[in-house]
Amino acid sequence: MSLKNEINSRRTFGIISHPDAGKTTLTEKLLLFGGAIHAAGAIKAKKSNRYATSDFMEIEKQRGISVATSVMGFTYKNIKINLLDTPGHKDFSEDTYRTLTAVDSTIMVIDSVKGVETQTHKLMEVCRMRNTPIITFINKCDRLGKDPIDLIDEIEDKLQLSVCPITWPIGMGNYFKGVYNLKTQSILLFTANTSNEKPKIIKNIDSEEALQLIGELEINKLKEDIELINGIYPNLNKDDYLSATTSPVFFGSALNNFGVRELLNEFIELSPTPQPRETEIRTISPEESKFSGFIFKIHANMDPKHRDRIAFLRICSGKFERNKKFYHVRLEKPLKFSSPTAFMAHEKSIIEQAYPGDIIGLHDTGNLKIGDTLTEGENIKFKGIPNFSPEIFKYVINEDPLKTKQLNKGIQHLCEEGVAQLFTNITDNRKIIGVVGLLQFEVIEYRLKNEYNASCRFSEINYNKAVWISSDNKQDLETFIKNNKNQIALDMDNQTVYLSETQWSLDREIKENPSIQFRFSSEI
Ligand code: G4P
């Protein structure tokens, strides 16, 4: 197959949602359709851990499962679909943000009972940063949820995203009868069902059959709704979806496997093929014959005896080949990979080649970091894999001076893996760990002990944000650093960071120092 055909037959996406909206259930149903799993419940095991308790065995188990489910590949109607898993728990949201840099589109799951929730909002903001197209799936229609009009209004208001309903629910909760497909003008009849049998379709809304199966009252209400929807929402303009200004909306129930096939069918029709990617100097088109890709995730020490790491690479252009030498731009050296793996649902297999849109796992002994670019020799760096400002900070205190080396190495590795961010204060060289959620400190402490035999504790510091600072005016920047030297640190890439104590003091500094740029993510 030509490179162009390989590209056109791929879709790489992620599912975003607030925890409990139904992401895992939907993922499972999509994999069932793709034939990648054969029974519901296969990835549900994942749910056994909600991170609610500090059960460290559970953290380990979760890590094991998340390697297996980080990328789930399946084929549907001759399209190779790569579904990238995004952790739902907010304490791990940085991992989700980074994963979203490797997708070309997303499906947003909303719980019809709860509407738009906080985590959905945050993830939506990340999608907006890169104009990632979004398809919305309003789930749990078998429960008595909010009014569908209110739900789509909520998406428009809270997420500032225009919508275009493709299907529309007929009743909700106990009275949920099915959905009306506004495109095909047919009714999909609901039955509580967990297998992947096709639901019954009623082609004519005015038919006797519709009247019998849906009921007069409901049919009349549906007709009113259709008139209203058609009046407010014009037909979907694919370009508006692709430019991420409009989201097509589907209603259904993942648990009952209802509306999922329609979602998947429309997804492969609409969703973008692997897209061009920005580097610091030019845009790379997937059709370029020379290979390029970037690392967006690292998973370390699955077997602590071997210090093994798997780096996840998104291929952006050309063809990746096993055992071919590629250029590691940051280290300025060639590297070759003898056992690159592809992920097909739960199975990993060694691959000979891979194409744009594909995600492959590279075994690494410490050469690769999140954000690294690999090419066939060109000196480029892909943009868009920023660190975001953490919100909780603590000093690291070494509990065992004989294990200082192990501690430093462990912290370095875990931060490279993206578990937390490391800052070093420029005045006293003290190490500061910054995280998004408190749970990460427990993970770090546990993993340092178990994987590096190092012990540490954390002590409180009163910072609320790490803000990357820069300026065209060197003198002003130097003065600012000098005046605030106790609150200045370097991140792992030696970029200068201002650690603010309160939002109020940060706002004041921003106001009083107009020549200095304060950035809430590390990307310039
Ligand atoms: P998440 O990955 O987004 O966190 O959500 P997940 O799929 O785990 O679903 C959260 C809960 O919502 C689960 O119930 C799941 O069964 C339920 N759910 C998902 N889709 C639907 C739906 O369409 N209708 C209804 N009524 N429920 C749905 P649970 O009780 O927490 O878990 P379980 O015991 O069912 O596994």
Write a short abstract of this structure.
The chain is α+β, with helices and mostly antiparallel strands and about 525 residues long.
Mean pLDDT: 88
Which strand order spans the largest sheet, edge to edge or round the barrel?
Answer: 18-17-23-14-15-22-19-20
The CATH class label of the largest domain is: Alpha Beta
CATH topology title of the largest domain: Rossmann fold
Q: Describe the global form.
A: globular
CA radius of gyration is 25 Å
Unreliable stretches: 45-55
Number of helices: 14
The main β sheet shows up as: 8 strands, antiparallel
Based on helices, strands and strand pairing, what is the structural class? Answer: alpha+beta
Helix content: 25-40%
In percent, how much strand structure appears in the residues?
Answer: 25-35%
Assign the CATH superfamily of the largest domain.
Answer: P-loop containing nucleotide triphosphate hydrolases
- CATH architectural arrangement of the largest domain: 3-Layer(aba) Sandwich
**Compounds present?**
guanosine-5',3'-tetraphosphate
Number of domains as seen in the coordinates: 3
How far apart the termini lie comes to 38 Å
Number of strands: 31
